[in-house]
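U., I forgot to send this yesterday:
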Amino acid sequence: MLTEPEAFPRAFADAWATRQGAAIAALFTEDADFVNVTGLWWHGRDAIAKPHDYALKSFFADTTLRIGRAETRYIGTDVAVVRARLHLRGQRAPDGGKARDRQTIITAILQRRPDGWLAVSAQNTEVSPGMETHLAGDAGTQPVDYRR
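Result:
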């Protein structure tokens, strides 16, 4: 259990390193929700655990997460919003090769419970450095910069 919400990013990275979806889900309340980088929206601890477990044992099996900038904003004494930049290295590409490193920002709303702080909601957002938005086209959705 987390004794302070600021510990969430490190706990998330440590849980990731176990390769166990249940370790990640243990950071969340039973009725929590999680939105991943592609917009998949999972409700409940079991629904958070299952896809993380699959990914951590397959295309994320050799990954490491490094925590960058992190911030915590308290909303009262029992609720906090935590944001952290995560640097992902070692993802396996669909062809079996190694994918490029990625960055995301995870945003989690944590609530103080009698036994510690747990996330009630989280969203992981892909970072596309230098880009302004996404554009949907024939080849799929791509990050774009209109300033160029």
